[in-house]
Predict the 3D structure of the following.
Amino acid sequence: MNKMRTSGILKTACLLSIFLIHSVVLGGQVATKAFEVVKSGQGKQALIFIPGFACSGEVWDETKVYFENDYTCYTLTMAGFAGVKPQAHPSFECWKDSIVQFIYSHSIEQPVVVGHSMGAGLAMVLAADHPELIAKIVVVDGLPSLPALINPDFKAVEKPDCTSHVQQFCSVTDSQFYHMQKISISQLVSDTSRQALILEWSLRSDRKTLAEMYCSFANTDLRRRIKQIQCPALILLAAPFRGMKLAVEEQFKYLPQADIQYSDKALHFIMYDDKAWYLSWLTDFIRKP
């Protein structure tokens, strides 16, 4: 398939995910082509929670209970993750555009967007590309460009070839995939019961989606793009990033209004590993006028 035709297919898929969203609200759940959403709570101010790779929106369950009495919460699970039906051609930009369309189509005024990992990247790009749309963002262990942490000269390419990623993810046996994910997840959260839960979500995720979204996000560089963000931003980072402060804060130099805080003990899943610290910063930031 030539590049022009591939580009056309991807563009068409993106447009479909944006404009052909058929949403149905049943028992608080909203289904779209790009994600599923659980709506809960009630309040004029809306909160949108976006999880990271392979995760269910359930990762936010213990967070939402602190806000549902006063806020309307929209908790996403992205297509292909944790058992949600995958899209044919997912991408970071298409997912961002689909969330924007969801906000407009449901008349959600000035939401606060809370994102973890890849979801943190989506929170940043939503606020950068649509500064008039977002009231505040909370970045939970995410960076504008993860590859740039290792290579500061990293440059994103216009059309990344994700073929090798898809082949690698889809060619391993179920047993191999299980052990790969188990080892990886053990390094991302310290609580073993949480490891089992996250592993379950991962095993229920579509491997092709995981591969394509990993490739898409690994080719994303938001370091200059975040300059367009106008709203307040809270950045909550895992303990290992303390040892890389200079490199981390260099990535956020175009977001001078960001409040960057580092956990003393949390791994990647800060909401589990350092819950009290995380909730303290989160609630103060969200509730502050």
